[in-house]
Amino acid sequence: MAIEAGLIAIGAGLAIGLTGIATALAQKEIGSAAAGAVAENEKVFGKLLIYMVLPETIVLFGLVIAFMLMQKI
Amino acid sequence: MPKQDVKPTRTELIEMKRKIALSQRGYKLLKMKRDGLIMEFFKTLSKAKDVRAKMTQDYVLAEDRLVVAKCVEGEAVVNSAAFAIGHNPSVTMGTKNVMGVVVPTKIESETAKRRVDQKGYGVVGMSARINEAANAYEQLVEDIILAAELETTLKRLVDEIEKTKRRVNALEFKVMPELQESESFIRLRLEEMERENVFRLKKIKTKGQKARKRPVT
Amino acid sequence: MFKPKEMGRAVIIGPKPMMKQTVDLLHKMEVAHILDFVPLEGETEIWIGAPENSSASLNEKLVKMRSGAKLIGLEDWAAPGIEKLSIDEVEKNLDMKIRTVELNILSASEAKSRIEEQLKRIEERICELRPFGGIGIPLENCRGYDGVSVFAGRVSDIKKLEQAISKLTDEYELFSAHGEKSQIALFVANNHRETAAKLLSECGYEEMRVPDGSGIPSRLIAEQESHKLGLLEKEDNAKKSIAELRKRHAQFILASEEYLSAEVQKAEAPVRFATTEHSFIIDCWIPRAKLGEIRSALETATDMEVCLEEIHISHEDEPPVLLDNPKAVKPFEFLLDAYSTPSYYEIDPSIILSFVFPLFFGFMIGDVGYGLLMIASGIAAMRLFGKDESMKSIGWCLMVSGIFASLFGVLLFGDMFGLTFQSGAHSVEGEVVYTWSSILGMDIPIKSLIHKTEASGVTQLLVISVIAGYVHIFIGLLFGIINEWKHDKKHAFGKAALMMILTGLFIFMMNMAGGILARWLESFKGSAPWVFDKLAPALSAGLTIGGMAVPYSTLALSLAGTALLVSSIGLIGLIEVLEISGHLVSYTRLAAIGVAKGAMAMAFNTLGIGMIASGNIAIGIFGVVVLVAMQMLVFVLGSMSSGIQAIRLQYVEFFMKFYKGGGTKFKPFGYERKYTIEKSGKAD
Amino acid sequence: MTGRGNYAYACARVKAKRAMLIPKEAYPRLLAMDVSGIMRFIGESQYSQETQELGIKYTGAETIELVLGKNLAKAHHGVLGFCKGELKELVSAYMRWWDVRNIKTVLRGKRYNAIPEDILKAIVPAGEYDEKYWAGIVRGSSTIEDVIENLKGTEYYGALVKTREKLGGDLSRYENGLEMEYYRRILDSIKPATNAKRTFIDFMRDEIDLVNFRTLFMTKFDGVEPKKIIGMLIPGGKMGKEDLHALANTDGFGQFMELLRNTAAYPAIKDEISQVESAGLNGVIRALEKAHAAAVERMSRLHPLSVLPVMNYITRKEAEIENLRIIVRGKASGLDTERIRELIMVM
Asked: What is the Cα–Cα distance from C86 to C256, expressed in whole angstroms?
């Protein structure tokens, strides 16, 4: 049981960690582009925010999965 | 010549007649010269008119091209290109004689026009608009030199015509009438003197006849 | 409310002599959104109008006044209570005053920039000299030799250099000063030049130009420094005199700038019109309700010479958008504009936005303490930046969100600054848990219905998030159907199909969370027996696929929805199924952010309160400092991320279901006056 | 400098900048305004800082031209400032053209013996070297030779010395040498190793074509000998060497035009070619420039994360400044609106 619980916990950790990295990678480029555009024109901030936060859904999937896993411990 | 200064002598009369003949000949000659000059003047004038019209036209064009160059490339770039023009075209002027009038003429004509590779700036990367402005101004310089030559000629001619005209007029309206007047004065005077002489002789003659008729008492 | 104000398209036609009067009237009424005339290719009869003759000089004065305002720093100067000037007064001595102001400002700013120039030069000189400061030889000795080569610059390893050089020759002289990197001046006989250069480069040599001038560098630096001090004082005086000018002329410059701007706008208005030889045509949008009023005003002012004609709006026309919302909702319009102004023909979601955005924002914060802080900062923003329209809106949004946060804090989470009022039901034995009740030693009767930092609380939050998401997306799809209905019925059916799939998915998820729902709904059980006895079991009845219970209703709805989707917009619609499931999950960020913020606050609280409670005074004081700083951090970070996520849920998950945007804002021809008052005689 | 370069950031930024340039629709209205109106108009856009600085001394077209010049230098340095790594390397290589231009100005000024202030007025420090550097060069040298010696250490010293040794110290030779050196260096030093460099070289080759065409038109128009023309053509463009030489070797302007008409090498200038004799070269050159700019625009869409959007912005910005200058200067010198409209480059 203890080993099983440990494995589940590791799985949950990986789910969050890896999706977090994925989100970060995606946001890096988008963020730098958004920073560039906003530096010139603040008005596009709203539109860029969408692009900027789009990848965050990835980490949320990770979070949900992790949470569902944690329920099983 | 005031007539009182004239000595009514026969020699003087002969002299007068000679003078009149001379001035008549001079008058004719001057009149011919005047007409010739006027003809030359009109000939040059029409040429000058053409040149001047062309110059004005080229000037407008050059101005326009320069404005365009300045507009498109900016004043700074045009100025910079102008710095590149290293040498100034030179003109050596000579003279020629038209009916005794000395008029200028271009003897050594180094053309102001240069091809794009001779203008002083590099061709590669040069703006065509600046080059066109330069071309137009070079053409204008050419025009100006030609116009200067013609117009100076015109001016000299006009001076000469004026002078000649004055001389002709002086001969016609002053010298010749005066001479003729003096001549006629002398002639009349001489005639008068002759008449007087005849009268005097007649008088002496009648006096002698009377004396002969009445014996001396 | 859900629609922008109705617009009418009007064409105003009149003879040219009447143009000025027409422009003046329209400018004053501020109701016409003028469309710039675009000349057609090859058209010769109708062309763009020429500006009024007065525009050249007006523009020139305006340029000068704006420049003057900038030079004396009027722009970023908060104008405290400047009195309005009447236009008569501005007009009366405009020319004369502009000339004086211009001269004053010009001389003052030139004096200042001269001093700044000198200062800059001195700075540069000092910069240039500084590397040589440590070398005690006069500058003139560093150059101008025939037989000797001089190397001046920095090396990284001076000892190595010295050894190497001394080995090479003794016809050298090395001056050095030690700093971060050693500065040297090396004199070598010319015949050793090449080898010396090689040696130097091995020692990390970096050449520096020997500055011009003569004298010992350190002395020169001191000289320059004293010079600089004098100049700094002068600069200070210059600044003071500019501040003086600012005080003296602020009112006039602001008023004249405004007056001139408005006049220029009027004088240049013909540039936006179409004109023929004798007449002008203005093409504009006017709120339909005002059309009649404007027509009669124009006719009376110009003796019927100018006429206004309404023309039929075709569907290609994109009327400008003037949103029509109640006052409390208006501030939320800026959130809409930051995304894109809605198109004239679609639903204006401002009202939903004005409710859901603060709801989500407040839910994520979910804390009375932070909520009250938000209300306070919102009010502060509105008070402090009263002139700035967008700051005022932000302040309002912050305040409303703060109210929601406080409500959630009190009613749902029982939280204040990350501490619950009462300890949770599932507290682990032996763990120290601080609550307001335990700290203050009294029982505060505010319960935490949901405990953010406990596993069960998180599950509950997730369920709430999904419910919120379902409702939100559902509304979005509903709007989508309404928008598309007039436009393209197929797309409307597609949206309906998505609705079905979404509902199926939602039932599936709720079925999974059945236990939690059952607990919440326990108390309602008696009141609606039909729902609980018939509907709920019917919805949740199903089969187990791969260990997951899938209700029949989900299957039925999904299949029906997919069939409808594919038949209405084709296979490409299946991508939207994926998207919509993703979007539903996306709402779990409501829970995630709330939990993350709560956990962060709790951690800092445990740390800080632990330090305060340690008994040691020093640690206690430090604990207070840490606690306050950390609380501020949590507040700022929390409200920033919550705010952004709350907006994102609107923009991405909500708007993508129906919102097109791309509308043009209604911009009436006119000028908002802040520093001048209309002429009294004309104010009829 | 190494590193891939911050393409996402820089491209987003230049795209935002590009979106804020004066739109095409505004030009008819600008043409209708008066000069001071244009000053106010640009003062409300990207030129506000310069307009506000110089506005109080406003005297008309000169002030606006000053504003435009300052803004151009600022824009260029701004772009260079936010580009990093490989991207910066490429952009700065491109912008060195302004250094070439400035060296040419200094050389010309010295040849003419112009006073340093006049030369400095004609300098636009939009390249690698700043105003101070040029002031140093201009003040610190009195002859062309001095200038060349003072340029020791820059990229162009070698080319200048080579020109002097091979062809003698003739100004036009120096200038041709400098221009050709600029393109040679770019083509030689930047190898198409990465996608960015490939697209950049593609852009430069297109520009070389443009310069070559301009040279051909001017020299052919003035009847320069083909041998000389060939020496002025920059190698490495997209046009084949044979085609270029064939164009250069034609007998007189008429034949040149004939060949150009037949080969359809540049369909963009077809309409304008027929008007060359009457209206001058402006139309053709403009059409070429437009075609070049359109090509960059098109390419920058195909490669949204490359050096091309940056190039496109620079080209556009330069065009905008040129357009504004044309309108302002044209209005100040009394050109009629129709002429001005012909001169500007609106895409």
From this structure: 10
Q: What's the pLDDT band for C139 if we cut at 50, 70, 90? A: confident
Cross-chain residue pair D9–A40, CB shorter than 8 Å: no
Find where tokens 């000679």 sit.
B18
Model pLDDT, residue C377? 92
Q: C144-209: what CATH class?
A: alpha beta
B132 touches chain D (CB under 8 A): yes
**ipTM of this predicted complex?**
0.74
Chain C nearest C-alpha distance from A46 (Å): 5
Q: Render pLDDT for D260-318 as a digit per residue (tens, 0 to 9).
A: 777 655 566 666 666 666 667 777 888 888 888 888 888 888 888 888 899 899 989 98
Looking at this protein, which amino acid is placed at residue D196?
A
Cα C662 off chain centre by: 19
Chain A: nearest CA to C583, how far in angstroms?
Answer: 8
Contacts of D314 (CB under 8 A, 6+ apart): D76, D79, D91, D94, D95
Two tokens, residue D1: 């400098």
Question: Is C36 touching D (CB cutoff 8 A)?
Answer: yes
Tell me the DSSP string of D65-110.
HHHHHHHHHHHHHHHHHH--HHHHHHHHHHHTHHHHHHHHHHHHHH
Least confident stretch, C268-272, C358-362, C402-406: C268-272
Alpha-carbon distance D32 to nearest alpha carbon in chain C (angstroms): 6
Segment D228-263, tens digit of pLDDT? 888 888 888 888 888 888 888 888 888 888 887 776
Q: How far is the C-alpha of C556 from the C-alpha of C563, rounded, in Å?
A: 11
CB contact under 8 A, A30 and D8: yes
Q: Give B112-158 pLDDT, tens digit per residue.
A: 777 777 777 888 878 888 888 888 888 888 888 888 888 888 898 89
Domain count for chain B: 1
Q: Is A6 on the interface with D (CB under 8 A)?
A: no
Q: Using CB atoms, pick whichever of B71, B122, B126 lies closest to residue D326.
A: B71
Domains of chain A: 2-71 (1.20.20.10)
What pLDDT does C142 receive? Answer: 73
Domain range summary for chain C, segments of one domain joined by +: 144-209, 330-420+441-657
Local confidence band at C522 (pLDDT 50, 70, 90 cut-offs): confident
Q: Is the pLDDT of residue C681 over 70?
A: no
Question: What is the Cα gyration radius of chain C?
Answer: 37
Hey, of C341, C509, C588, which one would you mutate to test binding to chain A, going by the most A CBs within 10 A of its CB? C588
Q: Are D156 and D129 in contact (CB under 8 A)?
A: no
What residues of chain C lie within 8 A of the CB of A27, using their CB? none
DSSP string over B50-77: HHHHHHHHHHHHHHHHHHHHHHHH-HHH
CB–CB of D13 and A30 under 8 A?
no
Core vs surface per residue C603-615: b (16+ CB within 10 A) or e: ebbbebbebbeee
Cβ atoms of C14 and C338 closer than 8 Å: no
Farthest CA pair distance, chain D: 56
Give the pLDDT of residue C682.
43
Does a structural domain hold residue B191? no
Mean pLDDT (chain C, rounded):
83
- Determine the structural domain holding residue B161 and report its residue range: 8-183
The D residues from 287 to 326 touching B (CB cutoff 8 Å) are 322, 325-326
